[in-house]
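May I ask for whichever protein you like with its backbone structure tokens?
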Amino acid sequence: MAQIALASIFSLVSAGQTTPASTSNQDATAQTSTTQSPAPQTPAEKSDKAADKDKNANTKAGDKPSAGQSGTASGTSSGTSNDRLFYALPNFLSLEQGDKVPALTAKQKFGVVARGTFDPVQYGWWGFLSAISQANDSEPGFGQGWAGYGKRYGATAADGIIENFMTAAVLPSILHQDPRFFQSGKGGYGRRTVYAVSRIFITRSDSGRSQFNYSEVFGSAMSAAISTYSYHPRSRYISTPSNPHLFIGSDRTIENTASVWATQLCYDTFTIVIKEFWPDIHRKFAQKKKN
């Protein structure tokens, strides 16, 4: 009887622990979820998962470049670049590939010109040009010493600001012309030089057609006239050790205006030629550094 009782007890216990074959999959899943709890994560596993999450977030954020980041090797998604000539002077209106860039709006034209004109590097550049002007005693009506240098610095800065906005923002917005320079990169040195020089007189409209560069030619002329007849020296008498009543003629003349206009065109032509070959120089420096 004892053996029969023990056998009955063991059979009942084993039957209670065994899951019936007729139990549905949903009940088994519910039983498993209620009986099993997830194992606690170690600090290493938590850090790995956090790193994966950050990586995925960065990947999603990097799928589309922001307006301030470079969308291509030559320009940003807004159609301008973040390049600098000789790693210093702003070169935001130059692009290597101009076939697939959108036209700039008037707001974008003024914005990129302001960003380049008031870049911190420009202040040092104006100071350098003013020092050369003082050493050559150009426009002697400004005088010498720190007072003369200050006047030359203000005139140089104003000349640059007015010329930049007139040729790259004001007239391009009114005439619907593109102020950007698109590098050719094709042909030999002579062919590319001719192309760069021709950009002073030939530009692209907002619709992509080639036309006369009214913005550059007439914009530089207007800026020369505005600067010459507004803040450049008038005729005056100055006192020197050798001549206490030395007469200095006025710089506000048509001849001086034409000279300033020609100087600005020559300077812009020289700058455009540098812009044409700067990407090649930049890549060469980068290759040497890499080697």
Q: What stands out?
A: The chain is about 55% helix and 10% strand. Residues 5-38, 54-77 have pLDDT under 50 and may be disordered.
